[in-house]
Design a protein that fits this description.
- It contains 4 helices and 5 strands; from the N terminus they run H-E-E-H-H-E-E-E-H.
- By secondary structure, it is of the alpha+beta class.
- A hairpin with a 3-residue loop joins strand 3 and strand 4.
Length: 142
Protein backbone atom coordinates (compact mmCIF):
# COMPACT_ATOMS: atom_id res chain seq x y z
CA UNK A 1 0.00 0.00 0.00
CA UNK A 2 1.24 3.50 -0.84
CA UNK A 3 1.99 5.96 1.92
CA UNK A 4 2.30 9.73 1.81
CA UNK A 5 5.97 10.52 1.42
CA UNK A 6 6.63 14.21 1.91
CA UNK A 7 10.43 13.96 1.72
CA UNK A 8 10.69 11.92 -1.48
CA UNK A 9 11.66 13.68 -4.69
CA UNK A 10 8.99 14.52 -7.24
CA UNK A 11 10.34 11.84 -9.55
CA UNK A 12 10.21 9.21 -6.81
CA UNK A 13 6.65 10.22 -5.94
CA UNK A 14 5.57 9.97 -9.59
CA UNK A 15 7.10 6.52 -9.97
CA UNK A 16 5.55 5.39 -6.67
CA UNK A 17 2.14 6.67 -7.72
CA UNK A 18 2.32 4.85 -11.06
CA UNK A 19 3.35 1.60 -9.39
CA UNK A 20 0.62 1.90 -6.73
CA UNK A 21 -2.05 2.62 -9.33
CA UNK A 22 -0.89 -0.29 -11.47
CA UNK A 23 -1.00 -2.76 -8.59
CA UNK A 24 -4.01 -1.48 -6.65
CA UNK A 25 -6.53 -0.44 -9.32
CA UNK A 26 -8.77 -3.40 -10.19
CA UNK A 27 -8.21 -5.10 -13.57
CA UNK A 28 -5.49 -2.52 -14.34
CA UNK A 29 -3.45 -3.06 -17.51
CA UNK A 30 -1.63 0.28 -17.50
CA UNK A 31 -1.09 3.40 -15.40
CA UNK A 32 0.73 6.64 -15.94
CA UNK A 33 1.17 10.24 -14.93
CA UNK A 34 0.87 13.16 -17.34
CA UNK A 35 2.22 16.67 -16.73
CA UNK A 36 -0.13 18.93 -18.65
CA UNK A 37 2.12 21.96 -18.15
CA UNK A 38 4.82 20.34 -20.29
CA UNK A 39 2.63 17.93 -22.26
CA UNK A 40 4.80 15.00 -21.18
CA UNK A 41 4.06 11.51 -19.98
CA UNK A 42 6.23 11.49 -16.84
CA UNK A 43 6.08 7.78 -16.07
CA UNK A 44 4.05 4.70 -16.93
CA UNK A 45 3.71 0.97 -16.33
CA UNK A 46 1.88 -1.40 -18.64
CA UNK A 47 1.37 -5.14 -18.99
CA UNK A 48 1.85 -4.95 -22.77
CA UNK A 49 4.28 -3.29 -25.13
CA UNK A 50 2.86 -0.23 -26.85
CA UNK A 51 4.43 1.76 -29.68
CA UNK A 52 6.12 4.92 -28.35
CA UNK A 53 3.94 7.10 -30.56
CA UNK A 54 0.80 5.79 -28.80
CA UNK A 55 2.28 6.65 -25.41
CA UNK A 56 3.22 10.12 -26.68
CA UNK A 57 -0.36 10.62 -27.87
CA UNK A 58 -1.70 9.74 -24.42
CA UNK A 59 -0.25 12.95 -22.97
CA UNK A 60 -1.76 15.03 -25.77
CA UNK A 61 -5.14 13.34 -25.44
CA UNK A 62 -5.12 13.95 -21.67
CA UNK A 63 -4.36 17.62 -22.28
CA UNK A 64 -7.25 17.86 -24.77
CA UNK A 65 -9.67 16.17 -22.34
CA UNK A 66 -8.92 18.51 -19.46
CA UNK A 67 -7.75 21.71 -21.08
CA UNK A 68 -8.99 21.68 -24.66
CA UNK A 69 -10.40 24.93 -26.01
CA UNK A 70 -14.04 23.98 -25.47
CA UNK A 71 -13.42 22.58 -21.99
CA UNK A 72 -11.69 25.81 -20.96
CA UNK A 73 -14.62 27.79 -22.37
CA UNK A 74 -17.09 25.73 -20.32
CA UNK A 75 -15.03 26.26 -17.16
CA UNK A 76 -14.84 30.01 -17.84
CA UNK A 77 -18.64 30.22 -18.24
CA UNK A 78 -19.14 28.31 -14.96
CA UNK A 79 -16.69 30.63 -13.16
CA UNK A 80 -18.36 33.74 -14.57
CA UNK A 81 -21.89 32.60 -13.72
CA UNK A 82 -20.88 31.62 -10.20
CA UNK A 83 -18.79 34.74 -9.60
CA UNK A 84 -15.62 32.74 -9.06
CA UNK A 85 -12.04 33.72 -9.79
CA UNK A 86 -8.87 31.69 -9.78
CA UNK A 87 -7.20 28.86 -11.62
CA UNK A 88 -9.23 25.99 -10.13
CA UNK A 89 -10.65 23.52 -12.62
CA UNK A 90 -14.15 22.07 -12.58
CA UNK A 91 -13.31 18.86 -14.40
CA UNK A 92 -11.41 16.67 -11.93
CA UNK A 93 -12.11 13.13 -13.18
CA UNK A 94 -12.96 11.81 -16.61
CA UNK A 95 -14.01 8.24 -17.42
CA UNK A 96 -13.70 7.04 -21.01
CA UNK A 97 -14.87 3.65 -22.23
CA UNK A 98 -13.38 2.30 -25.43
CA UNK A 99 -14.31 -0.96 -27.12
CA UNK A 100 -12.28 -3.17 -24.77
CA UNK A 101 -10.93 -0.86 -22.07
CA UNK A 102 -11.96 1.66 -19.42
CA UNK A 103 -9.73 4.72 -18.99
CA UNK A 104 -9.86 6.87 -15.85
CA UNK A 105 -8.14 10.26 -15.79
CA UNK A 106 -7.83 11.99 -12.37
CA UNK A 107 -6.30 15.38 -11.60
CA UNK A 108 -4.00 15.40 -8.60
CA UNK A 109 -5.37 17.29 -5.61
CA UNK A 110 -2.44 19.62 -4.99
CA UNK A 111 -1.00 20.04 -8.49
CA UNK A 112 -3.91 20.44 -10.86
CA UNK A 113 -1.65 20.19 -13.94
CA UNK A 114 -0.68 16.62 -13.06
CA UNK A 115 -3.09 13.86 -14.09
CA UNK A 116 -3.02 10.20 -13.09
CA UNK A 117 -4.19 7.82 -15.84
CA UNK A 118 -5.41 4.28 -15.24
CA UNK A 119 -6.41 1.85 -17.98
CA UNK A 120 -8.40 -1.26 -17.04
CA UNK A 121 -10.22 -4.08 -18.75
CA UNK A 122 -13.76 -3.12 -19.73
CA UNK A 123 -15.12 -5.67 -17.24
CA UNK A 124 -13.85 -3.57 -14.31
CA UNK A 125 -16.26 -2.61 -11.55
CA UNK A 126 -16.29 1.16 -12.13
CA UNK A 127 -17.25 1.95 -8.54
CA UNK A 128 -14.29 -0.02 -7.22
CA UNK A 129 -12.04 1.60 -9.82
CA UNK A 130 -13.00 5.10 -8.66
CA UNK A 131 -12.68 4.15 -4.98
CA UNK A 132 -9.23 2.59 -5.34
CA UNK A 133 -7.81 5.29 -7.62
CA UNK A 134 -9.12 8.09 -5.40
CA UNK A 135 -7.59 6.38 -2.35
CA UNK A 136 -4.20 5.98 -4.01
CA UNK A 137 -4.16 9.52 -5.46
CA UNK A 138 -5.05 10.96 -2.04
CA UNK A 139 -1.92 9.35 -0.56
CA UNK A 140 0.42 11.22 -2.90
CA UNK A 141 1.10 14.93 -2.62
CA UNK A 142 2.16 15.64 -6.18
Amino acid sequence: MATKRMTASFSDQVMGLVKSLRTEAPDCVASGVVDMATGMLLSYETVENHPPEVLDLLAGATLDLFQGRTVVMIEDVFKERRGMAGDNHFFQEILVNSENLTHLFVRMNEQQDVVAVVVCRKSVNVGMLFAQVRRVVKEYSL
